[in-house]
């Protein structure tokens, strides 16, 4: 092999090693839980373990760009091994505790948003159930009339500003 061939082969090896190192540092399965989120999880585990499971499931599957996951109640029920009715009860419980905002987007389908000062999700593609980034339009009329108030309540509680770094 010529010196040039050996140099090219070595350069490729170094490039591949750098790429493997770069990939190993990515946080593809990363979900950040802030102290406020841990406190909520602890309370839910003590008072309503099934609601804690749903909260954790939603946190795991949040879209990292928008902090929302859109899912039907039947998909959530399947993932938790419960009935659709149980999912309705659990989401109502979480809503009543200001743990999430639920916005109806279709028959039995909702956009679920968690407080970003509690949970933050990094990008990930290694899940059994896919997360699709969407722009979801809803009306403030009818069932979603309380959405603006609930989002304002969720986001305007006395919360310290988070330092997420650059």
CATH topology: Arc Repressor Mutant, subunit A
Q: Give the class from helix and strand content and strand pairing.
A: alpha+beta
Mean pLDDT: 77
By CATH, the architecture is named Orthogonal Bundle
Report Rg.
21 Å
What is the CATH superfamily label?
Winged helix-like DNA-binding domain superfamily/Winged helix DNA-binding domain
Shape call: elongated
N-to-C CA distance: 46 Å
* Overall number of strands: 5
Largest sheet: 3 strands, antiparallel
Specify the CATH class. Answer: Mainly Alpha
Query: Could you name the ranges where pLDDT drops below 50 across 5 or more consecutive residues?
Result: 123-127, 162-166
Within the largest sheet, what's the order of strands? 2-4-3
Q: What is the number of domains?
A: 1
Order of helices and strands: HEHHEHHEEEH
State which percent range the strand residues make up: 5-15%
Q: Helix coverage percent of residues?
A: 40-55%
Describe the model.
The structure is a single chain. 22% of the residues are buried. This protein has 6 helices and 5 strands, in the order H-E-H-H-E-H-H-E-E-E-H. A 3-stranded antiparallel beta sheet has the order 2-4-3. A two-stranded antiparallel ribbon has the order 1-5. Helix content is 48%, strand content 14%. It is elongated. A hairpin with a 2-residue loop joins strand 3 (100-106) and strand 4 (109-114).
Task: Describe this structure in a few short sentences.
The chain has about 170 residues and is of the alpha+beta class. The protein has helices at about 5-25, 35-45, 50-60, 75-80, 85-95, 145-155, and strands spanning about 30-35, 70, 100-105, 110-115, 120. The chain has 6 helices and 5 strands.
């Amino acid at each position: 092999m010529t010196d040039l061939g050996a140099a090219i082969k070595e350069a490729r090896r170094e490039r591949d090693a750098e790429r493997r190192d770069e990939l190993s540092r990515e946080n593809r399965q990363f979900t950040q839980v802030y102290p406020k989120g841990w406190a909520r999880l602890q309370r839910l585990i003590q008072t309503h373990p099934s609601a804690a499971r749903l909260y954790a499931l939603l946190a795991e599957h949040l879209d990292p760009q928008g902090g929302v996951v859109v899912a039907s109640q039947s998909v959530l029920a399947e993932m938790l091994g419960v009935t659709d009715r149980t999912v309705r009860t659990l989401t109502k419980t979480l809503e009543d505790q200001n743990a999430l905002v639920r916005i109806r987007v279709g028959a039995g389908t909702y956009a679920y948003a968690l407080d970003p000062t509690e949970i933050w999700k990094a990008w990930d593609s290694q899940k059994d159930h896919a997360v699709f980034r969407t722009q979801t339009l809803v009306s403030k009329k009818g069932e979603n009339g309380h959405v603006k108030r609930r989002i304002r309540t969720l986001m305007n509680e006395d919360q310290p500003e988070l330092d997420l770094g650059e």
